[in-house]
Specification:
The protein is α/β, with parallel strands linked by helices and 306 residues long. It has eleven helices and eleven strands. The strands form two sheets. A six-stranded parallel beta sheet has the order 3-2-1-4-5-6. It has a five-stranded mixed beta sheet with strand order 7-8-9-10-11, sandwiched between helices. It is globular, with a radius of gyration of 19 Å.
């Protein structure tokens, strides 16, 4: 039976590229019949990466048949996976997020979770000497994942290992990191084709804080004005998205990659209280700028208070 490799819902570049990388490794190096799949439509940056490196867009699935062998990458959170994930035969997990719990396996499995900025960096270490057999397209996906997750090394999640792997890959591919990252971020920043609801779900994760369910959405961009110009419409869409998704509130952080700051939209008193308690911010109006805030994983989620 074919092993499915996938990341989290609302796939970004890492959750699009890492399944492709690992499926290549399983097929070509380990001799395991494997297939990368996605749990949703990839974002514009991920689509750019697929086109740039001539990679096929993986099939999009919503559920997994019982007993299907799967490898989960870039998450270990059941809320970000198919509802019936525990019916599958989970063969492995490769991730760089905190351990959440709730997944059940049918036997002992290989798990690799490391405090690195990107899943692809972990895969680079795991593949080891077999990297010599990796085609340029897969190397390109790996480099793209690292540059995306580190925001070209600006994110506080970036480690020296992430940097070293990225530079090695860029040298092998004869890629100028700054120029290529700028192309990726430009693709990510063009959100004109998406509805407000799609933007609120595009790069989002569900978290419970103090008894409140939040959908924490992050839009990383080099053109924050493009998003902030739609502020009123985005805030008007938040209650509907929250209701449909079983959340109390959507928190939307617009991360300015170049200025290295985030703007949090403040539609009501609940979000105002969250901003003041979580980030020691002074809120006057329906937005608040949070200097230095770049990472949901390291700076936003750990600090959330209600």
């Amino acid at each position: 039976m074919t092993t499915l490799v996938f990341g989290h819902k609302s796939p970004d570049t890492d959750s699009t590229g890492s399944p492709i990388i690992w499926a290549w490794y399983l097929n070509q190096i380990k001799g395991v019949d494997a297939k990368p799949v996605l749990l949703g439509e990839p974002n514009t940056e991920a689509l750019f990466v697929l086109d740039r490196w001539s990679l096929d867009k993986p099939e999009i699935i919503s559920e997994v048949a019982a007993d299907t062998p799967v490898v989960i990458v870039d998450t270990n959170n059941p809320a970000e996976l198919p509802d019936n994930i525990n019916d599958a035969d989970i063969q492995g997990i490769i991730d760089h997020h905190k351990l959440v719990g709730g997944l059940e396996t049918k036997g002992p499995i290989d798990i690799r979770i490391e405090p690195l900025a990107c899943t692809a960096t972990i895969m680079w270490k795991m593949i080891g000497k077999d990297l010599a057999q990796m085609p340029q397209s897969i190397q390109g996906a790996m480099l793209s994942c690292i540059l995306s997750d580190t925001l070209e090394f600006r994110s506080p999640t970036t480690t020296n290992e992430d940097k070293a792997v990225a530079w090695d890959l860029a040298q092998a591919l004869d890629v100028n990191i700054s120029e290529y990252a700028a192309e990726m971020f430009a693709a990510k920043s063009d959100v004109s084709a998406f509805s407000e609801a799609e933007l609120l779900r595009m790069d989002s994760k569900e978290y419970e804080v103090g008894g409140k369910q939040f959908r924490v959405s992050v839009l990383e961009t080099t053109s924050p004005k493009m998003v902030l110009d739609r502020k009123d419409a985005l805030m008007a869409a938040m209650p509907g998205v929250a209701d449909e998704d079983g959340a109390d509130q959507v928190l939307l952080f617009v991360v300015d990659i170049l200025q290295e700051e985030a703007t949090l939209m403040v539609p009501n008193d609940l979000v105002k209280s969250v901003a003041e308690k979580s980030f020691d911010a002074s809120v006057d109006g329906d937005t608040v700028v949070l200097p230095g805030i770049m990472s949901r994983k390291k700076q936003i989620i750990p600090n959330l208070k209600v």
